[in-house]
Amino acid sequence: MNYFLTEEQQMIKETAAQIAKEKIEPIALEYDEEQKFPEEIVKVLGDADLFRVFIPEEYDGLGGGVLEMSLVVEELSKACGGIALAYAASGLGTIPIILFGNEEQKKKYLPKLAAGEIIAAFALTEPNAGSDASAIVTSAKSDGDDYILNGTKQWITNGGDASIYTVICMTDPTRGARGSSAVLVEKGTPGFEFGKKEDKMGIRASSTRELIFQDCRVPKSQILSKEGMGFLVAMKTFDQSRPGVAAQAVGIAQGALDKAVAYSRERHQFGKPISSFQGLQFMLADMATQVEAARALTYMVAKNVDAGVKNIAGISAMAKVMASDTAMKVTTDAVQIFGGYGYMKEYPVEKMMRDAKITQIYEGTNQIQREVIAMHLIKESMRKKG
After folding, report:
1. Which of 38, 144, 333, 366 is most exposed by smallest CB count within 10 Å?
2. pLDDT at 160 > cutoff 90
3. Is 4 left (phi over 0), alpha (psi -120 to 50) or beta?
4. 72 and 196 in one domain?
5. Residues 204, 316: one domain?
6. CA-based R_g, the chain, Å
């Protein structure tokens, strides 16, 4: 379909696609097997100015937004959802600085992030606080001009490899969610350490680690917005980042569909290619329809975010749900089309199926997303009624 991308957006998409095909696809299986973080791909993306696409021009960016970031994530994810995540998760860690950072913070971090000199991460989840983000217990106690952080964050993407972390912590536990704040913490700060690299089912080229804070002293000047705004920072960040997760899911699904179509033409049974069998044709048709529908919704939501449309949470959740469910369905069907070969690690669709699963889980499980969607439907109904 023609999504009427601008000339610059089309160029961004083509640049990312070329990197995916030439640099990422040849190493995807190796990096998955060895759980290697793609430092050299991060450098390639930086040299290609792809980290700049969603950062404002006044901070050395190209002035694009969520749609431009999503275009890059989608193309990279066609080759490897795990490697693409180094880029996407840095976007997640950068968004709160763009949205809530003061001028000093933006000037300090955004140019380096735009150049790909450093990458970012976002830290909300804890051992006992996942879907219930208000249950965090990592504390930031006031001590003069500093905060002293104590606690553990769990399953943080880019953990250990990122240089700057947006950490959601409690500055006033007596106020519940309204007592949380967002603090920028730099790698190397005394009292800030990392746990082991997690051994995951999928996205294995992506680093996932614990963040451990033990009497970690951070200047109060590192707070985003102001005290008590941590929950809002997190929710507004997710509203803008969920199209990125959707784009990752669309990319994984499209990559699996492409492989399935090509294989169906090459594989012969009963003296003819399996693509000639109607049952398989129907599978491919459904897969293609689902991917295109997910892409259309993802792009639409990204454009709405960039246009400044308010109350975006409901449709942002829709894009994430639809795209990630599609990725899981399409990659599963791709494995089925490959048959026994699809179950073997030497063929790419097995990995794509494993990579797809996480898109239904992180940045809010799809069950929670459905609650968000329903809540917005009910609120809108009440608003119209009276």
Report:
1. 144
2. yes
3. left
4. no
5. no
6. 21
2 pLDDT band, cuts 50/70/90, is confident
Q: What is the pLDDT of residue 386?
A: 67
List 227, 346, 363, 371, catalytic entry? 363
Q: Are residues 180 and 281 in the same domain?
A: no
DSSP character at residue 198? P
Q: In whole angstroms, what is the distance from residue 240 CA to residue 68 CA?
A: 12
Annotation says 363 is catalytic: yes
Secondary structure (DSSP) of 118-152: S-EEEE--BTTBSS-GGG---EEEEETTEEEEEEE
Cα–Cα–Cα angle for 49, 50, 56, rounded to 5 degrees: 85
- Across the chain, mean pLDDT equals 96
The SS3 of residue 11 is helix
> What pLDDT digit, counting tens, does each position of 74-116 carry?
999 999 999 999 999 999 999 999 999 999 999 999 999 999 9
254 plus 180 within the same structural domain? no
Separation of alpha carbons 48 and 53, rounded Å? 10
Q: Are 116 and 42 in contact (CB under 8 A)?
A: yes
Q: What percent of the chain has pLDDT over 70?
A: 100
Do 142 and 240 contact (CB within 8 A), yes or no?
Answer: no
Q: Could you give the C-alpha distances from 360 to 65, 176, 245, 246, 328, in angstroms and in order?
A: 24, 27, 9, 10, 8
DSSP H helical segments within 187-277, as ranges?
Answer: 230-266
320: nearest Cα among 39, 25, 70, 5: 70
Residues 79 and 131 reside in one and the same domain: no
Residue 56: give the domain boundaries: 7-119
Separation of alpha carbons 321 and 335, rounded Å: 21
146 Cβ contact partners less than 8 Å away, ≥ 6 residues apart: 217, 218, 219, 220
User: SS3 helix, strand, coil % of the chain, rounded to 5?
Assistant: 60, 15, 25
In DSSP terms, 151 is beta-bridged to 213
Give residue 1's pLDDT: 82
Residues 292-317: tens digit of each pLDDT:
999 999 999 999 999 999 989 999 99
Measure the CA dihedral 147/150/151/153, to 10°: 40
pLDDT in tens, 214-244: 999 999 999 999 999 999 999 999 999 999 9
pTM summary value: 0.96
